[in-house]
Specification:
This protein is α/β, with parallel strands linked by helices and 287 residues long. It is built from eight helices and ten strands. Strand 7, helix 6 and strand 8 form a beta-alpha-beta unit. The protein binds NADP nicotinamide-adenine-dinucleotide phosphate.
Amino acid sequence: MHAALPQDRFFAWPELNGGAIDIALVATHPRGTFARLPNLKLVQSMWMGVETLVDDPELPRHVPLARLIDPGMVHAMAETVLAHLLDWHRHHYYYRRMQREARWSRLEQVLPSDRTVGLLGLGELGSYAAERLLALGFNVCGWSRRPKALPGVKCTTDVDELLARSQAVVCLLPLTPQTRGILNARAFARMPRGGCVVNVARGAHLVVQDLVAALDSGQLAHAYLDVFDPEPLPPESPLWAHPGVTVTPHIAALNDPRTSIPKIVENVERVRRGEAPRHLVDFSAGY
Ligand code: NAP
């Protein structure tokens, strides 16, 4: 950031020189931060998800809040989604279990064109993941709040329609009051039996006991979880040892300075020129 904005001075929390600071670059901020920054012109999130900022009652609502849209993260997320989807589609989760038990057991091969992947969220991450899934030959259905049209994707605003169609459901939603707990018993019951769930959005989208029940009953074959509530996932969580769960430590898409810094700098320069920053959060929608 120093190299990209050589004329700027940088202060790191807690050494904030409040009055001089016009841009806040925020990852995980301590409460009380914004009370010390009275002259902000931009709050730039260092994450794509902004629920901790939106939920902070001290966040000044008259200051634009921008999400980080890092093209490197968008690619990384699509790779993670494809990796999990192929693991499930090619039954590798099952063959790992068979190997541990020294059992030679084959499952029937299924074609991608026989599968429908349902994407909860068709935003920056969901729409690019949809493209990559289509390229592999999967049918893709996507759910968004507002009606959408994406080539090759069955777009819907009816979540029940998506759940009924989709053997695999991938959560790429922002965490809002409307989406909290959306991966629950009702949702799993609507999916065709034997499918998989991939949660790469936020831990609080998932109701853990409902997931464990759906896995134990065979309604779901496997779950891929990257995000948890709380994080880190506590050692006593049943998810660590459940044979139907693959756990990763919130690494689905990591901020890469090579691709994120140019995007942050672009927004800083837009604000300095008096232009509106890109990727503003809509406070009324919560994301
Ligand atoms: P985005 O561009 O804001 O897209 C969000 C999508 O969700 C949009 O299609 C939106 O619909 C839809 N949506 C929101 N609320 C909805 C509702 N109530 N009903 C139906 N659809 C709804 O977000 P993004 O950049 O793709 O990121 C999504 C989330 O991924 C982030 O918020 C973050 O939590 C998570 N994430 C995780 C990682 C990781 O490493 N695990 C990394 C980055 C991001 P509209 O199109 O109608 O607005």
